[in-house]
Each structure stands twice: as structure tokens, then as C-alpha cells.
């Protein structure tokens, strides 16, 4: 008998889910005239997301990684407790949006760093006894004379 497999949503997927639920809640309240259904939808989703964030926060604290998630969780719970479910939805959009943006920035930085590393020269033009030889960068000795041709990237740290 197999168990149910639950795939963890990415931060981008969480953001889209929150936006879609917010849109459905807006339609329920303002287009259909069912504010109670909108409030129930936002409250249930807000409570689930707050619980999910709380569990993630506890796991982070156990590993020594502290953040501002506690404030966000308290804000969501407090706004839901006093019936300000639209404020809770705004906080959820801000939180999931911030997490998605953080993931995007980290991915972009990784891509750029990988690109820089991939473009580092693998050979150096080393002058030995008046002739130029191509050597692997790792094989160039300290003090060797290296030529950098126009348009090339300097393959090694150097003086002068």
C-alpha cells in the first residue's frame, strides 16, 4: 500500500498559488457577493501557510539559521485572529513574493558566477628563452613571463 507523495512547492509556485487564491477570494466577495466564503477561503489558506512557515522556521532555528519569519507568522495569525483577512492576504503575498524574488536572485547570481568560471582561460602564453609556448594555467610556474594577447582575459594573477 503506497503512501501519498506530497511534492514541496517552490517559492514561485507558492506565490502563484497565493495570488490565485486572492483573486478567487476577490471574485467571491465583490463579483459574487459572498464575503463569508472569501473570508473562509483566505482564513483557511492563511492558517495553512502560517503553519507551514512555522514548521519551516522551527527547522531553521534547530540548524542555527535565524530569520524574521516569526514576525511574519505572527502578523498573519494576528490579522486572521482579528478578522482582517485581506491584510493577512497582503502579508502572504509579500512574504511569498519576497521568497520567490530571493530564489530568483540566488539562481541568477549562480548562473553569472558559473558563466564567469566557465570563461576563465585554461591556457597561458608563456615566454621561455624567447619563444612563446601555450601551457595549462595550472602548470605555469611563479615568476614566469606571460603574454596576454589583445582581447584575451588575463589567465593568472600577475604584477606589472
UniProtKB/TrEMBL annotation:
<keyword id="KW-0812">Transmembrane</keyword>
<dbReference type="GO" id="GO:0016787">
    <property type="term" value="F:hydrolase activity"/>
</dbReference>
<dbReference type="GO" id="GO:0016020">
    <property type="term" value="C:membrane"/>
</dbReference>
<feature type="transmembrane region" description="Helical">
    <location>
        <begin position="70"/>
        <end position="95"/>
    </location>
</feature>
<keyword id="KW-1133">Transmembrane helix</keyword>
<feature type="transmembrane region" description="Helical">
    <location>
        <begin position="37"/>
        <end position="58"/>
    </location>
</feature>
<dbReference type="InterPro" id="IPR051014">
    <property type="entry name" value="Cation_Transport_ATPase_IB"/>
</dbReference>
<dbReference type="GO" id="GO:0015086">
    <property type="term" value="F:cadmium ion transmembrane transporter activity"/>
</dbReference>
<dbReference type="Pfam" id="PF00122">
    <property type="entry name" value="E1-E2_ATPase"/>
</dbReference>
<dbReference type="InterPro" id="IPR059000">
    <property type="entry name" value="ATPase_P-type_domA"/>
</dbReference>
<comment type="similarity">
    <text>Belongs to the cation transport ATPase (P-type) (TC 3.A.3) family. Type IB subfamily.</text>
</comment>
<protein>
    <submittedName>
        <fullName>Cadmium-exporting ATPase</fullName>
        <ecNumber>3.6.3.-</ecNumber>
    </submittedName>
</protein>
<keyword id="KW-0472">Membrane</keyword>
<feature type="transmembrane region" description="Helical">
    <location>
        <begin position="15"/>
        <end position="31"/>
    </location>
</feature>
<keyword id="KW-0378">Hydrolase</keyword>
<dbReference type="InterPro" id="IPR008250">
    <property type="entry name" value="ATPase_P-typ_transduc_dom_A_sf"/>
</dbReference>
<feature type="domain" description="P-type ATPase A">
    <location>
        <begin position="120"/>
        <end position="158"/>
    </location>
</feature>
Amino acid at each position: 500500500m503506497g503512501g501519498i507523495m506530497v511534492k514541496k512547492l517552490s517559492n514561485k509556485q507558492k506565490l502563484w498559488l497565493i495570488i490565485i487564491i486572492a483573486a478567487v477570494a476577490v471574485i467571491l466577495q465583490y463579483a459574487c457577493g459572498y464575503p463569508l466564503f472569501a473570508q473562509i477561503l483566505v482564513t483557511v489558506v492563511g492558517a495553512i501557510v502560517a503553519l507551514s512557515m512555522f514548521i519551516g522556521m522551527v527547522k531553521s532555528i534547530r540548524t542555527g539559521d535565524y530569520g524574521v519569519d516569526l514576525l511574519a507568522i505572527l502578523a498573519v495569525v494576528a490579522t486572521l485572529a482579528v478578522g482582517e483577512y485581506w491584510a493577512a492576504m497582503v502579508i502572504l503575498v509579500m512574504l511569498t513574493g519576497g521568497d520567490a524574488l530571493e530564489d530568483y536572485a540566488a539562481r541568477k547570481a549562480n548562473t553569472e558566477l558559473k558563466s564567469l568560471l566557465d570563461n576563465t582561460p585554461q591556457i597561458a602564453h608563456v615566454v621561455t628563452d624567447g619563444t612563446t609556448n601555450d601551457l595549462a594555467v595550472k602548470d605555469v610556474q611563479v615568476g614566469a613571463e606571460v603574454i596576454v594577447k589583445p582581447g584575451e582575459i588575463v589567465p593568472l594573477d600577475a604584477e606589472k
